[in-house]
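The instructor's notes for this session suggest beginning with a concrete chain rather than abstract definitions. Hand out the sequence below and ask the class to guess, before any prediction is shown, which regions might be ordered.
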Amino acid sequence: MYLTPQHVLLAGASGLTGEHLLDRLLNEPTVTRVLAPSRKPLAEHPHLENPVGDPAVFLPQLSGRVDIAFCCLGTTIKLAGSEQAFRAVDLDMVVAFSKRAREMGARHLIVISAIGADPKSSVFYNRVKGEMEQALKAQDWPQLTIVRPSLLLGERLETRLVEQLAGPLSRLVPGKYHGIEVCELARAMWRLALEEQNGLRIVESDELRKLGK
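After discussion, reveal the predicted structure:
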């Protein structure tokens, strides 16, 4: 069964994936309102509401009905400055945003996680992503879609040396570890938003690439 979401809540609209997804949402004829809070102002659009400031302050103040929520929040330990600061974004902020989205009436949450997400992982990054997934499952969403992309391929404002080096190699790796273009990920997330099913769905990177073609 396919749905046509009209009122959308989007977190992370200024990030690499979020900006591609926002552009797609604003060009969808069925979407009449996109509520996209951000730390910095976004380009104005008739269907865009863009509260600007500290998420901890404005998150409880978000209002209006939403049908679906997309969470594209994410950082790196280098950009965050510490493991604690990384957890504050990739775990705490994601969980708080999702809780608020549910309170606003959203029945479907689509969230970006990562390949290898596991709350018992010995790798800090994967462990935090796994803890995030675990926390969202506990929120008892009618429909929860967790996407696990591999290395994202696209132009970033900031330089990430490891990703610059790994990008070309990731295009050669088969299966779910093959790199995924950020525009493909955004298209896949929108296609997943149109599908109605109950419960949890985890979508690995190889399936995301197929959906995003």
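Then share the key points. The domain at 7-211 is CATH 3.40.50.720 (Rossmann fold). The chain has one domain: 7-211.
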